[in-house]
Amino acid sequence: MEIFIEPIGKLINEFSKLPGVGKKTAQRYAYRVISMTDEEVNAFAAALVGVKKRVRFCKVCGNFTESEVCGICKTRDPAVICVVKEPKDVIALEKLHEFKGVYHVLHGVIDPMNGISPNDIKVKELLARVGEGNVKEVIMATNPDVEGEATAMYIAKLLKPLGITVTRLSRGIPIGSELEYTDEVTLSRAFIERKEI
Amino acid sequence: MEIFIEPIGKLINEFSKLPGVGKKTAQRYAYRVISMTDEEVNAFAAALVGVKKRVRFCKVCGNFTESEVCGICKTRDPAVICVVKEPKDVIALEKLHEFKGVYHVLHGVIDPMNGISPNDIKVKELLARVGEGNVKEVIMATNPDVEGEATAMYIAKLLKPLGITVTRLSRGIPIGSELEYTDEVTLSRAFIERKEI
Within chain B, which residues score under 70 in pLDDT? Predict the structure, then answer.
């Protein structure tokens, strides 16, 4: 016999799909939802659906946006491009209020062990942006792990013959950790001390 | 400047309302939702709304149900009533597959410090059920804290004159724990309630 009645069981199952959420936590979440007002639950559901409906990728940089071109690409200095693996890395860097240039989201890193080649991520798009001229510096801000380093080196080799300054965040970031979880002081320092590669 | 675009910020805000979820965790959840398919997100939203639309309280015991009377009240022995504070306590006890009787959910406990009197919880409803006759035993399964104990004592005093056997879940040292690390209140209670073997 199922202990939970069907609608509660269903909601617990949905919450269990979130990262790091087990049955017990999902159950706590479901009970909180039951005790919410109709308006609160409807707003929650609308926010879920809204994020899928309204969020798309910027056609220039690949970051999340609501319009065709994101707010950063529209307003900031296009002479410096900071290259990151994922949209959440843009958030981590924007929190510093340090960088005045634009981004390029690769949507992955080169990872031959998992069959991900340069063609599977947005490398071509980056080259096209640089090819338009006016780009002075490309900052490689992929994670300081094996795949991130390899990706940075690969892209640097492609860009250097074009006369572009390619820099890399300084290795103040602890090796093996992820950009998203690096504390802001370390991340900020790594940004300021970026070095040409 | 807001770092997150509006639909993502909204969803992060909604996830932050769940118990124990901070900004960082809410952000992780939101990113997972963005990477879900439309079908998955729609199912999630439907589960949220569904739980509010379909879940109500059993008119007999106060537990969650989809119909007027819950599955437990419909099928099990009404001679033994187990009294709990909240619907989630029913789940905890049902997992044992031990109890064959029915429940009564108080939806709170007596807590004068927070202005909760016996009239604010489902005590009258319990007395009405017992008053219908056929009830032999009432098991007080409120939490073993100050309010839970007070509530159990209060209800026991009302029921005993009616000739009902009122019992309480035994309190003592948790199975598998060590005497040395048991808190003093628990150990003291275990000592006082020692049983002949």
Answer: 1-2
